[in-house]
Design a protein that fits this description.
By secondary structure, the chain is mainly β. Helices cover about 15% and strands about 40% of the residues.
Amino acid sequence: MMRSLFSGVAGLRTHQTRMDVIGNNIANVNTTAYKSQNMVFSDLLYQTTQAASGANANGRGGINARQIGLGSKTGAISTAITTQGSAQSTNNPWDIMIEGDSFFIVNNGSENFFTRDGSFTIDGAGNLVMANTGFKVMGWQVDPETGDIRQDVVSALQVMHPDNLTSLPEATTLAYVSGILDKTDTAINSTAGAIRTFQIFDGQGYAYTVKMSFHGIGSEDEFRVQLDDILDSTGVSLVKKYNLSNINQIANFGGDNTTSKTMLYNPDSAAKPPAGQNTFTDTFNVELPFSSVLEGYSNNALVVAAGKDVEITTPANGGTVNVGDTVTVSGSVTLTRAQLESAPYNLRYDDATGQYYTKPETGTTGVPVESNDDWTKAISAMGLEGVTGVTVTPVTDGAAGEMSVSFNAEFSATLAATRNDKVFGITLSMPNDEKEILKQVYHVEDGDGKSYTIEYIAPDGSAQITERTQTNGMSLVFDHDKGTFSYIGNQGSNTATLVFNTSASSLGGELIELTQFSNVEIDFSSVTNNGNGGKSTLDITPGGKGGDTIGKGRAPGELIGIEVGQDGRITGSYSNGLTKLFGQIAVAEFANPSGLSKAGDNLYSATMNSGDFDGVGKDITEGGGKMTSGVLEMSNVDLSSEFTTMITTQRGFQANSRIITTSDTLLEELVNLKR
């Protein structure tokens, strides 16, 4: 009877332990990433009153041992550590859930612990830490040489390091050209060419606009691409800003193929200066384009589109103009709907009425453009310099909205010139003093690349004239059969380089440093030469051809966002479009994760039965796991199972208590025998 008493006591103690485990599970039903525990029973000891015996030679059979049990004990308390808890969305980017059997690695300053609790935050020093303990989250750093993760001994992740708050500027080094070059495009065949611009950055993060143009040279398969200008962020040409003579002092696109020839110009005796005067004038018939003589001509989209169809109205052939005189031109051009609906016209075409309207204001349909006076007012309002009269008629056999535009325009002359059969000739004013030298350089920007240096030599009126012809830009060649890209510059080349000089000398003799610029390699292989209704869709885009940001260049940026990838990589986003890798959260894996020892605060410690941590950790994706940002792992406690186990535990406890009370009754009866 005494043995039954002690068996009941052992049973009560064991069931009490099981109830403690159940109570702890239920208490942690809302603890982040808590792993439920389960207790199993085992019998305690046995008292053997008779040992087992086997059969003997006398014919007696064997008998089993006689053993009396002494109760139960706690066999094991196991943790369901590999059972994944449900996901709870928090929308906090620093809340991270592990999917798989891995553990975060955290450090208290002296030793590593392991946890499934991914409720992290950033401390005052910029470290990624556990929100409830402040223990630092461990991971791998970025290799400064490769810019990628270096898997080494884990260390604290200082996400908000001062170096990560801003990103340095980068100079533009790559660009690519895409779209269609239509050889019938009037802009391609105009003096100015089809102008395209793209943005670049220098090494200091300042933005510039590169202005390039595409020109027809009379061939169906070959065209010319040239650098026209580079503007700063305020729209001022660097040539003007630095007081230079031309853009080639800043950069060049294509080789400097310059040829020159020198000739003597001798005016006849009638051109000699009269007695008592020091100068004479005569005409030197160098043919200059409108853009070299007429101020604002190249800024007028209408006359530029008309190209070589523009003619001089006044002065008459042989007439002269001085600086500031008015020159009248006339011309005609056919504009498509696409051109009229884009800059600088910005009109709107109504398909229902076949009518053009000015750009509408809020709540209006815009003003109809019907009469020629309406067209003149509309075009004048666009800032097209010099336009005085416009006659517009629909093209009867053209596409919808296609208009034939005839116009007159007035421009002011920028130099003294004489009207000849074609364009203009320069009027020279020559000094009659052998001690004086007159140099005048005219840069002709008509695509022929001609410039003239006119230098006075002797009192007899003779002058030395040097004519230089420079082929600007590069040849862009297409396949004749299909119109596909063939090469740029040299055969076999898909790219051409915009080369920046390291320095330039201003007209005042000042040295201009240009080392902040980087050469830009431009890829032309995506351009085609196909019919597109007379409209080219060429576009120059900075960056790599694949659409990535490599080589695009950028201004300095500020950190505007951080995200954690499924592999634990922490990436920052900046206001200039740059993304930067800050580090990677490493994880630990154990051969027997159930062998980890609970250390409180949702932490675990490695034990001899769990396996050791190697100090380096692993990439979570190696084992097929992943991390999810903005989500926490919930407790894996199953309340229905816990309550069911609680019922059986309660009944077991009650049954063991009955053993004690019944044994007590038997003892009482035994004591009463003496009465």
